[in-house]
């Protein structure tokens, strides 16, 4: 009789072994299995309490069946907990989770001939004689050419850096670029006239060809200083002057050596050059804080020159009086 009872009590074990073939998909199912086991144990405990009031032989047989049932239940729940464990990620899994099939890598721009953007209007220079400084950009972008105002793309940091550095006392919008000479005694031009999507669509040859044109503009309008907005522009000027690329140890941000003045002519020593970072949104080699640190010395110099010449660090048109000299007549220590 004991062997017969043992055979019957082994049936739950067979069922439990069959459950190994069905893996658990998530932790919720594993928790459900554990709850079911607790119910089984509670029911078995109730039978055990009832058995305590019966004969010893019946109690012994129930106890033996309870032991077999508990073992089979634990055996059934063990795969459920094991199946809920997460498998360690392999290199292939990590690559699959980090890559997105819908996200495409941004392609770099290539040279584009002038005919590609011939339909876009040219951006006019904002120049007057006797300005404190003239900013020199690479060339107009598509958004700038379409709007007809300098640095018009929302991602461009030019107007923001102009304010944070101290060149202007308020943040000026691109629509007021034409007011910069009368407001702050500052102007703007580019080394390449034609528009493009970005500087990568320009050739090194046309960048270098724009250098003598830029030098002639400086000679004609004679600003106190020239601010080069981007390392690539200064590299083009250097290539035109010396017929070779600018070496890494020859480049520096900020004020350049006195021999690098632009627009030299008999009777005028030329304008000193300050090289600052590009403000383009696509120029991400420098952090915003690093760009501000490069711009700040130039902004401080501009404020001091405006204070000396016009009696204010801010807008000169708001304080202009009969005693305030015109731009063309104002003398400049920086251009002596």
From TrEMBL:
Swiss-Prot/TrEMBL keywords: DNA damage, DNA repair, Hydrolase
GO MF term list: pyrimidine-specific mismatch base pair DNA N-glycosylase activity; uracil DNA N-glycosylase activity
Domain Uracil-DNA glycosylase-like: from-to ranges: 133-296
An example Gene Ontology biological process: base-excision repair, AP site formation
Pfam families hit by this protein: UDG
Segments traversing the membrane: none
Listed Acidic residues bias regions: 24-42
Residue spans of biased composition, Polar residues class: 1-10, 49-61
Region of interest called Disordered, as start-end residue ranges on this chain: 1-115
Biased composition (Basic and acidic residues): 11-23
Name of the protein in its database record: Uracil-DNA glycosylase-like domain-containing protein
Organism: Salinomyces thailandicus
């Amino acid at each position: 009789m004991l062997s017969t009872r043992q055979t019957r009590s082994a049936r739950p074990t067979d069922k439990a072994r069959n459950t190994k073939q069905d893996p658990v998909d998530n932790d919720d199912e594993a928790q459900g299995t554990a709850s079911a086991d607790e119910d089984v144990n509670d029911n078995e405990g109730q039978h055990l309490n009832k058995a305590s009031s019966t004969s010893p032989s019946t109690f012994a047989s129930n106890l033996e069946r309870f032991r077999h049932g508990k073992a089979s239940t634990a055996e059934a729940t063990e795969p459920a907990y094991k199946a809920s464990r997460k498998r360690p990620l392999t290199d292939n899994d990590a690559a699959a989770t980090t890559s997105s099939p819908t996200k495409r890598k941004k392609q770099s721009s290539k040279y584009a001939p002038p005919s590609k953007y011939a339909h876009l209007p040219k951006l006019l220079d904002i120049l007057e004689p006797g300005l404190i400084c003239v900013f020199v950009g690479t060339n107009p972008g598509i958004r700038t050419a379409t709007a007809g105002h300098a640095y018009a793309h929302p991602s461009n940091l030019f107007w923001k850096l102009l304010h944070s550095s101290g060149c202007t006392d308020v943040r000026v919008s691109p629509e007021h670029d034409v007011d910069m000479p009368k407001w702050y005694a500052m102007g703007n031009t580019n080394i390449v006239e034609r528009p493009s999507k970005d500087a990568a669509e320009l050739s090194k040859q046309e960048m270098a060809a724009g250098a003598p044109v830029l030098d002639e503009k400086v000679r004609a309008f004679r600003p106190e200083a020239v601010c080069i907005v981007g390392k690539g522009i200064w590299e083009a000027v250097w290539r035109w002057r010396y017929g070779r690329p600018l070496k890494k140890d020859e480049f520096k941000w900020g004020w350049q050596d006195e021999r690098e003045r632009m627009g030299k002519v008999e009777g005028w020593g030329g304008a000193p050059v300050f090289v600052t970072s590009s403000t383009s949104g696509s120029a991400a080699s420098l952090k915003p804080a690093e760009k501000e640190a490069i711009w700040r010395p130039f902004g401080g110099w501009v404020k001091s020159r405006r204070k000396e010449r016009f009696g204010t660090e801010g807008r000169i048109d708001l304080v202009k009086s009969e005693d305030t000299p015109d731009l063309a007549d104002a003398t400049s220590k920086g251009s002596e």
